[in-house]
Amino acid sequence: MADDIEVGKLRAMLDAAIDRRRFLTGALAAAGGVAATPLLPFAPARAQDRLRIVITPGQAFQPMPIAVPQFNGDPGLGAQVAQMLAQDLRASGYFQVLDPASYLDRVLGANAQPNFANWAGIKAQAVVAGTVQSQGGQIVAQIRTWDVFGQSQLAGQQFATTPDNLRRLAHISADSVYTALTGFKGFFDTRVVYVDETGPKTQRVKRLAIMDWDGANVRYLTRGSELVLTPRFSPTSQQIAYMAYGEGEPKVFILNVSSGARQLLGDFPAMTFAPRFSPDGSRLLFSLQKEGNANLYAMDLGSRQIRALTDGASIDTSPSFSPDGSQIVFESDRGGVQQLYVMGAGGGGANRISFGAGRYATPVWSPDPDNPYIAFTKQDGDGFRIGVMKPDGTGERILAEGGHNEGPTWAPNGRYVMFFKDGGGPAGGPQLWYADVTGHVLQQVRTPSFGSDPAWSPLLR
């Protein structure tokens, strides 16, 4: 399957940027976060000037060479924002940030057009300019993205925030550049909740931890006194559903990220596990074990009424909603071996969608309705692999293999999948990795200790 990214569809890119600005201005400003406003272009963009990245699975792909020179304004703030923005773009796998030692213009502010000949001379196809400074107790950043060969501005935005939000400001700035150059929504202003693992392999202490998507700002949400598994964000990122196993049967809890308060999902007589929020946050799917079988249930979080979605002598688990909430994908051994099935959100007949060799598990539906894929774990022989397929079961593609790969979760733009990988060995343990849907990008996320069961948040509000 060819996956083309046209960098130069200016109308689509500007529309995407406008949508992002509206979101940021409305939601983040209200939350005391980072507010955004557009910058007027220096020159009108010309639709015939097109940068183009073509990513084709199985073929060689060269990241786009871009330049991120030092931003002007406050030298210290400009250096920090430029460095974090460049690191985000580099980590996406789609861009090669050129060595600053090759730049003829070492500093480039937002209030002047670049010398395009100088940037073309070092083969930069795009250049990011910025001005960052303190104004009235806030940090204000102006960020412009330029098409070097088209000699036109692709996007320009101004962001303002308090000094303690500088890192988010850099991530949001990187999102605006990523959108301008790819046409896709960004994913840098996000968090990941995961299970932090420490101690000997036979006595692991497992805590819930939350961090920026790139592994920075790790904060622990539980103390490690009980086993925790499968954390899942609510659509607002303010709540996390997870399974905890202390004394008695494992139970599903819902944790408030800000206050730390948690509540039991319900007083069920048997084990509950594998929770997942609906796209609108009004319902929670989970599995309930009875007499050796496990079936799927949905709870209305307002009334706490539950409804059985499956009722059979099999193990049905790992449910995940489609982006519009109308369908559910889940794993089941009803056919004798773990496979993936899709049914309506109200239950009823289910269609099997996985037919390859081996077992399929932990399906997760992409949050992007325009990029309809389901990520999964596949056990075939001795290996656990991470793959994706379309909701009808076609287009299966393996993204990561070698060792034990498990537990995929989608970035909010539907372009990347994070998972955990365990290479084995007495001293080994799980580590977090991510891949893009084309299979060209595969990188590790550094965490302070071992990490498993990641769940990627939506874009922060």
UniProtKB/TrEMBL annotation:
Alphabetical GO biological process terms: cell division; protein import
Domain of life, per lineage: Bacteria
Keyword Metal-binding among UniProt keywords: no
Q: Where is the TolB N-terminal domain?
A: 51-154
Please tell me whether the keyword tRNA processing is annotated for this protein. no
Q: Give the matching Pfam families.
A: PD40, TolB_N
Q: Where in the cell is it found?
A: Periplasm
Which GO CC annotations does the UniProt entry carry?
periplasmic space
What PROSITE patterns does its record include? TAT
Keywords for this protein: Cell cycle, Cell division, Periplasm, Signal
Specify where it is mainly localized: periplasm
Return the similarity comment.
Answer: Belongs to the TolB family.
What is the protein's known function?
Part of the Tol-Pal system, which plays a role in outer membrane invagination during cell division and is important for maintaining outer membrane integrity.
Which NCBIfam families has this protein been placed in? propeller_TolB
Known partners and oligomeric status:
The Tol-Pal system is composed of five core proteins: the inner membrane proteins TolA, TolQ and TolR, the periplasmic protein TolB and the outer membrane protein Pal. They form a network linking the inner and outer membranes and the peptidoglycan layer.
Q: What is this protein called?
A: Tol-Pal system protein TolB
